[in-house]
Amino acid sequence: MRLKDRILIAIFLLFFAEGASASENIWLSNTPPKKISKKIRHGMHGVSFIKGNDGREKKILWIRSGSFPVESQYANCTNTKNPVIFVCSPDGKLIKGNVSHGLWGHVLTFEGNMEGFYNVYLFERFVEEETLNIVVAKAEVLSHKCSNGHAGMRKKMLHRTFNEEIPFEIVRERIPGEDFHTFLSSGDDVTFKVLLKGAPLEYSKVMLSTQKRWVNNLKTDINGGAAFQLVGDYYPRFKEINKRNIHNFLVTAEYTVKKSGSYQGIPYERIHYAGTLGGSYIPSKTMYTSYLYGLILLIFVMPAVATLIYFYREHRKRPYKEYAFREKD
Amino acid sequence: MNEKAKIRLIIEVKKSLKEIMDDFSDVPEEMGYFYERFRAFFEETPNNGKKVIATMCIHVPVELIYAVGAIPLRVCSGARSMAEIGEEFFPAKACPLIKSTFGALYLNIFPMAAAPAMIINPTTCDHKKKIGEMAEDIDSCFYTLELPPTKETEEARFYWHMVVKKLAKELERVTGQRLTRKKLKAAIGIVSLAQAQLRRLYNIRKGNPVIWGNNAILVANAYFFDDIANWTDRLSRLNDELEDRARRNQYVVGQEAPRILLAGSPSIFPNMTLPVMIEQMGGIVVAEEFCSSSRSLYDMVAVDEWSLYDMIPAIADRYLKPGICPCFTPNIDRKRRLLNIAGDFCIDGVIYNSFAGCQLYQMESRHVEKILEQNGIPMLYLETDYTSDNTGQLTTRLQAFMELLQDQKS
Amino acid sequence: MKKIRAFINNSNISKFRFYFQIAAFVLFVYGGYFYVTISEKLPTFACPFNKGSGGTCYLMPLQHQLHMTWSRFIGPGGIHLLKGFLVFACFGLVFSKAWCGYLCPLGTIQDWITKLRKVLHIRFSKYGETTFKGLKKIKYILLFLLIIIPLGVSNSLLWLPKFSHDIFPPFCKICPGRIVLPLFTGDTSQIYIDFSTKTAMTMTALGMIVTGIFFTGSFFKKRFFCLFCPMSALLYIFSKVAILRLNKNVAKCTRCGNCYRVCDVGIKEIADDVINKNIVKDDCMLCLKCVEACPEEGCLEVSFFNIPVFMSTETGFFKRYCLRNEIK
User: Please, which residues bridge with residue A207 across strands?
Assistant: First the structure.
């Protein structure tokens, strides 16, 4: 694809995306605001840690609002005063999560060092313009240290859903061969599944936006899945490639159903489900590695060594040679 | 002179053989074959047109000779009559074995009346080194196999490998046959079968004596000139018989007989005086540390890959590394081996024989005696010759030693 | 009991080893597909870069555990390191170097390459004594580097700047196992050169070169890579106290050198050392070919918990070496 085409498409997508996002989305991000990023300890997979007042380390997520990762605000508030915080540890126990207004916005903190995925949800329900909004911001926080071992990793890779508590959620299907050490990278095909009360939801609008506002919209298929390719949006000059450059992506899903009722005494005509799922990815390996050069080198070395050995053996067949001495002082 | 010497040799052979056959009773039936071989020592035997390569030492890799389709023939001689001939060419105090061997070469008297195409002469002792220069006195020509003076260093090993490789090339030239992988593998095979049988005989001799020591020495001696397949087959039959005797507790001597280890210069037929005398005095030779018997076939060739590049060095190593000839320096392995034999064979006493003139064995005797003494094994040091001049003194010393051993045992 | 012992002593352990190695290879290279995870501290090259690996080579976690700041050593990091080493030590103490000769998949591949060379009738190479002594030091240098570099990535050593993270994990970057073993599960993704930084490029290119040398080298030299393997150096720590031992009854040794001849690695001491009883050297892989090639009764002996399990016998030697090459 030529550069011109790319730009055209990008511009088109930009406008399209602007139109698509009617309301601001709330999502959970593991990237701190730039100003304070030095105070934060980063673990594997971009998990951020902060030391609490009691000296214990907590995992921290920022509540942000916006449809594109790079433009999202570090929100100073959420839609409601008392959002439901739901954190499930890898062993299936609910643990306490705190929302506090602290470092540059609202943050969600929780403790825990177990191996596996922590499922974190921020869940809100409010009525606005005769619509019951159900907003679910989700994050999967992977906690893993190689020193803890990798026993039972395959089991812990399975994703969990909470149909009772969380009515609407986006699930990222694992890519083939994924394990605790896998990092999504641009170019990967990722499928997101939208679940309404645990059942796959068809015709739901799913939008994926990358760090640099590349946007793709899809409707879920019969299995509730929407398959995206994480497009490469990192094109530095070859010499400046940073292979550890972590970018965020944001997935949002929307679904509106006509159903009247009342919530907390306020009647509504329809229910609008909105889910978000944040994540991060790194540049594709193909940007900076070469299979061909590796193969050429490998294939070149083998006969080269063999030739050396051949000549050494031939050399040995020659008669004995005198020892050489250096006459100079 | 040739005819006269030959007659004297024949008399000597017959006399020596008669002494063994008459004085020792209860001999295994299968020994008959070996007696017969020695009786027909000088009679011509057909060799299917194969070339004969004479060897003068155990350090000659016979596998290579078999592999090029030739027959090795060890020409080391124990005949007094031949030593008398050889006396002309050597100083008075020279080794009788060398004199005898050279005497036989001079008169062109070979076992089996063979006519060797080549005589391989390893440079072990000083005598052998100089014998190589005396080719103008005899009809055949010597091929000098350069044995390094030590076996400990990697340089010596490398050098010896080159020497053996050169020998392989020379053998190819002399016989006109190419050395191939299959032939060499087969050669290692036939030699190892012979080795297996000889080792079996030794294991039998570790138990209560079912065979006279002089008989066992004769058997090993026959390997010098016998067809290897025949020899192996006959020895295996003898071993079967001996094992059967052991099962029936049919021993040649009683438990009280002192078990003797004969060490040092080899007793080569017809020079069997020493083992015969020991056994006439009530001892039993259960083991020998002779280059003519135990040492010649004991060490095995093991190969990792059946390719010439591995087999030839493997053969070379087998003829150098386990060698305990006193021509090597240092020679700690010999003392270790003697101790090991003494333990394995329940030795009561060691009789260390050195030929007059073999300075290497003579010089080593002191260390050997010391080490044996430390391990509580008595040793008698003897210096003998092929002549029977000092038989009286020999008898006295031997008798005293045997009495000492018998006293210790009872 | 006597009969069983005689049967074992006369057996052809190389043949047993051949099949055992295949089984171990399947376990360590494809075991992951059958949800087998033996341990993460294995003293053998069960490469975690291979998706089907049935365990993890200890060098990988070792490098990771050493990749931490000094302060973390006195704390959970240090405990993890110690715990990991203890698990590794347990494996090492039980089977000692037999991990190399019987279980290591990379060693097995080298043995197969050797078999290929045998079929092609190309002769093998052997190092001279001095070359051998020089080359065998490389494994200690590699071991030192694989310990020091991770430390240098997270700490400043000798006031030098910290090393680039691209060098990490240093040994895995140059280990042929990372490239070769995934090939057996159809994964060629490890064949690459990383051009992102100079360090990354050097390390990955080095990895490719080492792999190339590995293939050719092990074709001409038996167990070529084992001489440089830092795991072999690490396992040597336990060989003196391990439960599985190779003992030499030095009095019975005739120094015929058969054991040295068949030794794939080329350990001369096995033939020449007549002083030490425990004969396991740093390059030894306990393949026990030496025991097979020893014609002296009970001269070389393998013991487990001080119980002799396999020893050299005359009959065994003749069975293995002589009777099978009788002239037809």
Answer: A217, A252
pLDDT of residue C227: 93
Residues of chain C in contact with residue B188, where contact means CB-CB under 8 angstroms, are: 325
A161 pLDDT band (50/70/90 cuts)?
Answer: confident
Is the CB of C327 less than 8 angstroms away from the CB of B186?
yes
Q: Tokens 């390094």 sit at which residue?
A: B148
Domain count, chain C: 1
- Is C258 contained in some domain? yes
Residue C117 CA to its chain's centroid (Å): 21
Q: Which two tokens stand for residue A164?
A: 């009772």
Residue C268 in any domain: the answer is yes
Is residue C80 within 8 angstroms of chain A, CB to CB? yes
Rounded to an integer, what distance in angstroms lies between the CA atom of residue B390 and that of residue B388? 6
The DSSP letter of residue C104 is -
Chain A environment of C188 (Cβ under 8 Å): 291
Asked if A290 lies within 8 A of C195 by C-beta distance, the reply is yes
Give the integer Cα–Cα distance in Å for A299 and A305: 11
**Nearest-by-CA chain B residue for C118:** B305
Would you say residue C294 has pLDDT above 90? Answer: yes
A/C interface, count of CB pairs below 8 Å: 87
User: What would the pLDDT profile of A206-219 be if each residue is shown by its tens digit?
Assistant: 999 988 888 899 99
d(CA B388, CA B375): 33
DSSP C179-203: HHHHHTTT--TT--EE-SSHHHHHH
Which of C76, C165, C211 is opposite residue A298, by nearest beta carbon? Answer: C211
ipTM value, please give it: 0.89
Domain residue ranges in chain A:
3-287
Segment A257-263 mean pLDDT: 89
Domain residue limits at C321: 242-325
Contact C193 A290 (CB under 8 A): yes
Closest approach of C272 to chain B, Cα-based (Å): 9
Strands B259-264 and B284-289: parallel
- Give one DSSP letter per residue of A120-141, joined into a string: EEEEEEEEETTEEEEEEEEEEE
* Greater pLDDT, B376 or B44: B376
DSSP class of B300? P
CA A147 to chain centre: 23
Of C35, C125, C219, the CB nearest to A154: C35
Q: Mind listing the pLDDT tens digit for each residue in B104-154?
A: 999 888 888 888 899 999 999 889 998 888 878 787 788 999 999 999 998
* Domain-embedded: residue C274: yes
CA separation for the pair B192, C319 (Å, rounded): 11
